[in-house]
Specification:
It is built from nine helices and four strands; from the N terminus they run ββαββαααααααα. The chain has 279 residues and is mainly α. It has two domains: 43 residues; 220 residues, no CATH class. It has a two-stranded antiparallel sheet. A two-stranded antiparallel ribbon has the order 3-4.
């Protein structure tokens, strides 16, 4: 039989501490566990210089995946009834851009959680709480997300692409951007906190030097995303009502700042690997 550790590594029940063992025996058990854990970690698959400790899906990861899938279902069923004519079908197809953008946004956060889970393999109470928080925000975030993208595409196309509201003002679009910004900020913060939590357990997870560096890079990337969401929220609250939709322009910084951040971290990692090869 096998006993599963928090980092996904298994050890034999034969080395578990049983009642009646003295302190010396316990010490030997600890040494055997450490030796087995080191060997098991060395045998783990490596992807992008990071050992994948979470090969087996935990219950919380399965639940999180199901919740993200359900949120995508909500995006689909939030559309109107099945078209009954060609004209209605065309109107329904016009909603695809907003759906696609919402799908991509949710997929980014799902993959971030999946990516973190595969690397770290944690299954403690902090992981559960943060994962459940991510699920909660995602489910609340679904409808404002689609409405926001529908509003943006409607404004960009001169109302050719449909918007859920028959009448709306620029101030209301600004309010929608504020709701979106709060959701984006909250979800980015949760992913950031997951990486912070793993980094604090670096010794327990036996993260190598390059793995710690990559974890810090992930933290930096999500800190940038969170900061841009915060900037958008502040602009929405401070700009005049008629100018508040311009707060959405803050997100245009993402395709500029993130590639630059990626280039910088890639160069630093290359130097890091040249000085000290990855584990």
């Amino acid at each position: 039989m096998q006993a599963r550790l928090s980092n996904g590594v298994t050890v034999s029940d034969a080395v578990r501490v049983r009642p009646g063992l003295d302190l010396l025996s316990v010490s030997w058990v600890g040494m055997i566990r450490a030796m087995r854990q080191d060997t098991s970690l060395d045998a783990l698959p490596v992807r992008n210089h990071f050992r994948l400790r979470g090969q087996d899906m935990t219950r919380i990861e399965t639940f999180t995946d199901a919740a993200f899938a359900f949120s995508l279902t909500l995006l689909v069923i939030s559309f109107d009834a099945i078209p009954a004519s060609f004209e209605e079908m065309i109107e329904a197809l016009k909603q695809i851009p907003a759906f696609a953008a919402s799908f991509a946004q949710i997929a980014i956060f799902w993959y971030a959680h999946h990516h973190w889970s595969r690397r770290m393999g944690l299954d403690d109470i902090t992981t559960v709480v943060l994962s459940l928080t991510l699920v909660f925000v995602t489910l609340v975030y679904v409808f404002p997300l689609r409405i926001m993208f529908a509003a943006i595409f409607s404004l960009m196309t001169g109302n050719w692409l449909p918007f859920d509201f028959d009448e709306y003002s620029l101030a209301q679009v600004g309010s929608i951007l504020l709701i979106y910004g709060i959701g984006f900020l909250a979800m980015s913060l949760v992913i950031l906190l997951l990486h912070v939590h793993a980094y604090r357990k670096a010794d327990e997870l036996q993260l190598s030097a390059i793995e710690r560096f990559l974890t810090r890079c992930e933290m930096g990337g999500w800190l940038i995303g969170m900061s841009i969401g915060l900037i958008s929220c502040v602009l929405t609250l401070t700009l005049p009502a008629q100018w508040s939709p311009l707060a959405g322009m803050a997100y245009m910084l993402l395709p500029i700042v993130m590639p630059v951040f990626g280039i910088v971290t890639t160069r630093r990692m290359a130097q890091y690997l040249a000085e000290e090869p990855a584990h």
